[in-house]
């Protein structure tokens, strides 16, 4: 069975979460992004994956990755899909199947990531996790040794599903709660505040 590598692609924190600009200042959004990444790294490091790598995000993200004992690699200047595919291919060459995991999953736990790994039959089957809110893809495990290409962006879950069917890849769709809830919009923030009272204040706290 292949080993499993978690890949977390990141934008520079000061440029992320622009859809929340009406609620948070630039510095608050930067703090929000960093604090969510910390939660994601804790979950990834606690999972059964053998490797965790943060891709891009700049110097401040590199420091966080190091603090949580994760690897870090610089963005090559491609778009998100290009950077992710470069990292997937690099890990495949080392014998890993790869999990794409966003850095904005504030409720993800190690058990959620392990559910994805288990559904993949230990890295040999494609697994897709739809976003709970916007038609995106909140997580996917891509087995080593196939030519599946990531299509992150608008309606990516349906496009990933169609691509898998066109390639006749065995695919499992699951929705572990902590993996399916990403933070992009004000509506997400309201929903998450209901789930975790004080969520907004904690995630925007630079001392969190």
Task: Offer a concise description of the structure.
This protein is α/β, with parallel strands linked by helices and 208 residues long. Helices cover 40% and strands 16% of the residues. The chain contains eight helices and seven strands; from the N terminus they run βαβαβαβαββαβααα.
Q: What does this protein look like?
A:
The protein is α/β, with parallel strands linked by helices and 208 residues long. The protein has helices at residues 26-46, 59-67, 80-93, 110-119, 156-166, 177-180, 186-195, 199-203, and strands spanning 3-9, 51-55, 71-73, 96-100, 126-130, 137-142, 171-173. Strands 3-2-1-4-6-5-7 form a 7-stranded mixed beta sheet, sandwiched between helices.
Protein traits:
8 helices, alpha/beta, 208 residues, single chain
Secondary structure elements and their pairing?
Elements: E1 3-9, H1 26-46, E2 51-55, H2 59-67, E3 71-73, H3 80-93, E4 96-100, H4 110-119, E5 126-130, E6 137-142, H5 156-166, E7 171-173, H6 177-180, H7 186-195, H8 199-203
Helix pairs in contact: 1-2, 1-4
